[in-house]
């Protein structure tokens, strides 16, 4: 019996209970499942320790174990009727192909573009700093003047160098932050998609069953 | 262990644990299960009954591990009831032990104390 089946059966047994009380009971049991799953227990272990839905219903005062269902049973896919999770496997394979053909190339392209931005920003900053240094030493070292823009007065060269260096430094800082964020998001996506593609154990469910 | 013993003291155990600290359902079940082997599903109906009787209050607290948890906090009425039950238990268990000791003493031919 799974968690969903357990809670469905308990809901069925408590059909005669006032709705608000019933939902509270189901929320309590659901929370118990969440907490136990977080501690590493399996659904079967949790159910074995809780006892049967019938035993719980009896303790709430609902001794009639044969209650007409008031909610429709959860829909069962054709593949699950045959005992095989074929739809889940197909989904995993399809998602894997999507990642190989489009997902991962996009992620790596995005990382490469942002990395190129980082390199460009650093290059602009270094160029600006070098230009500024050459401008400052040009009155003392005539050879440095050959590297400066011809016809530009000293002040203009100074401003150009300072501006380029400042722009480069600011751009580098933001580009590096963006690169770090990009890497974080990409790693999370790759790990999540890898787990999904190979149908690994999902995270504990967060929502109450219908 | 005799199931009737467990049924009889479960209420006192729940009240005693909650009189020391607020707990959420699974935490309370785990604390008690460590000492007494119980069917964990028996705790929640008991908690509901005691809450309806005004012995507990409940509140939601955010959890870093998942959805908010419902915590049970004992009320003043619950504390008073717990002290009353605990006193009755100590008295009762002392008398039962006395009967047990007296029975053993009788079988050995000694005068019970």
Q: What can you see in these coordinates?
A:
The complex is a heterodimer of chains A (210) and B (113). Chain A is mainly alpha-helical and 210 residues long. Chain A is built from seven helices and no strands. Chain A has helices at residues 3-13, 19-38, 43-50, 53-59, 78-81, 86-137, 154-197. In chain A, helix 1 (3-13) packs antiparallel against helix 2 (19-38) and helix 1 runs parallel beside helix 4 (53-59). Chain A starts with a helix and ends in a 13-residue tail after the last helix. Helix content of chain B is 61%, strand content 17%. Chain B is built from four helices and three strands. A three-stranded antiparallel sheet of chain B has the order 1-3-2. In chain B, helix 1 packs across helix 4 (76-107). Chain A binds chain B through residues 21, 24-25, 27-29, 31-32, 34-36, 38-39, 49-51, 55-56, 59-60, 204, 206, and chain B through 24-27, 29, 33, 39-42, 44-48, 65-67, 69-70.
- If helices are DSSP runs of H or I spanning 4 or more residues, what is the number of helices of chain A? 7
- Number of E strands of chain A: 0
**Gyration radius over CA of chain A:** 32 Å
User: What is the straight-line distance between the termini of chain A?
Assistant: 17 Å
Task: Describe the secondary-structure layout.
The complex is a heterodimer of chains A (210) and B (113).
Chain A: H1 3-13, H2 19-38, H3 43-50, H4 53-59, H5 78-81, H6 86-137, H7 154-197
Helix pairs in contact in A: 1-2, 1-4, 6-7
Chain B: H1 3-20, E1 23-24, H2 25-33, H3 43-52, E2 56-63, E3 66-74, H4 76-107
Helix pairs in contact in B: 1-4
